[in-house]
Design brief:
The chain is mostly helical and 388 residues long. The protein is built from 17 helices and two strands. The chain has a two-stranded parallel ribbon with strand order 1-2.
């Protein structure tokens, strides 16, 4: 676990760590007015029209190159390119799910299903429902589905609840984290199909139809154009790298940040800011991570269009500083180090006896040498921030 030292300073100095979550005078309401008056919540139709158009052209170019190359091992380069484009397409589906692209639920759903179900083979409806629960309760035990502990354990208790192989994986999860991401793409496809089987209604059939077209078209193209061995290798490379890229883009956002106890109450502003981590970088970082590097701003204002997040950073950071609210930001490599350190500490802390389902603390966490004021030393157990 990692956290900003400002948390401890605020506690010792009597700084504000809790306030009403809603109301015209709440901290979040004041910040919202500032952001809205700056025009940062206005949608960007021209940006997204160009973004979606260029993305579709590049995706089509990748499949065109696939068709032209035919039965060749050079297709593995196409697999790498398509892994990148699948992830970039997923970022557009993410923006649609948050209504960043347009205000209409119907139009957003159409964009999301085309980019999710049809183009990359993931259920848009299933993902939106899951992702909305995450946004409502980020890093909260029992409420955030992203820290449910099914694959990666976020608390020692999650490891101790497992048996044999699962417990072993939990104890060595820091070493296995990136190799496990090779399976993330396959996992998302399977989870999407399972989710559609358990739901009913018109949306389910629309999503199932688009998903079937994607899977059928993808597998047909791969196994008809390539030799059987090449087809299998292509699948492994393309889907494996897709999972690594997607997982590596989401991993820095919350992993290793404070975990909130299941029954603890935290106001909206602090819940979103304290559990999120920003990634420092350039416009290329924005492109590579799909805007997810502005995780604090995104969690505070999920419907804010992606290109506006960069401009929202200064007012949000200044507002947090005025109220003694930690604002966590570090480099991409340092964020991965913090994530792996937390996973290692959680696995190491899990002992033979049942443990409380709380967040592990790493007392050996080192600050980012590049920007000491932005780096994040160890965090306390779940709830230590919110209880006082």
């Amino acid at each position: 676990m990692t956290a900003d030292p400002a948390v401890g300073a605020a506690r010792r100095g009597g700084g504000p760590l809790a306030s009403p979550a809603t109301g015209p005078r709440s901290d979040y309401a004041q910040l919202s007015r500032t952001v809205k008056e700056a025009g940062l919540l206005r949608r960007r139709p021209v940006y997204y029209s160009l973004k979606i158009g260029l993305n579709l052209v590049l995706l089509a170019a990748g499949w065109a190159a696939f068709a032209v190359l035919g039965r060749s091992w050079w297709q593995m380069l196409v697999a790498v390119f398509l892994a990148v484009m699948f992830t970039q397409t997923g970022f557009i589906g993410h923006d649609a799910g948050h209504r960043q692209i347009c205000g209409s639920k119907r139009a957003a759903g159409l964009i999301g299903r085309i980019h999710g179900n049809l183009l990359i083979g993931l259920s848009y409806g299933w993902w939106v429902a899951k992702h909305n629960r995450h946004h409502a309760h980020p890093n909260q035990i029992g409420r955030d589905p992203d820290i449910g502990g099914q694959a990666i354990a976020f608390t020692p208790g999650q490891i101790q609840a497992r048996r044999r192989v699962g417990a072993w994986l939990g104890r060595y999860q820091a070493w296995l984290f990136f190799p496990m991401l090779l399976l993330e793409g396959f996992h998302l496809h399977i989870a999407s199909m399972r989710a559609l089987r358990s739901h009913s209604g018109t949306a389910r059939w629309a999503e199932a139809s688009l998903l079937t077209v994607h899977i059928g078209g993808y597998l047909t193209a791969v196994f008809v154009v390539l030799s059987p061995l090449q087809a299998v290798v292509f699948l492994v490379v393309q889907q494996g790298l897709f999972g690594v890229y997607l997982g590596s883009s989401f991993a820095p956002n919350h992993k290793g940040m404070p975990v909130v106890g299941q029954d603890e109450k935290v106001d909206f502003l602090r819940r979103q800011a304290l559990t999120s981590r920003n990634i420092r970088g350039s416009v290329l970082t924005d492109l590579a991570l799909g805007g997810l590097n502005y995780q604090i701003e995104h969690h505070l204002f999920p419907s804010m269009p992606r290109p506006n997040l960069r401009h929202a950073q200064a007012p949000v950071r200044a507002f947090c500083a005025q109220r003694g609210i930690p604002y966590s930001q570090t480099s991409l490599l340092a964020s991965y180090a913090q994530v792996l350190r937390h996973l290692h500490t959680t696995g190491r802390t899990a002992g033979p006896e049942p443990a409380a389902d709380t967040a592990a603390a790493d007392q050996d966490a080192a600050p980012d040498p590049g920007r000491a004021e932005d780096s994040l030393p160890p965090a306390p157990q779940a709830g230590a921030y919110w209880s006082q």
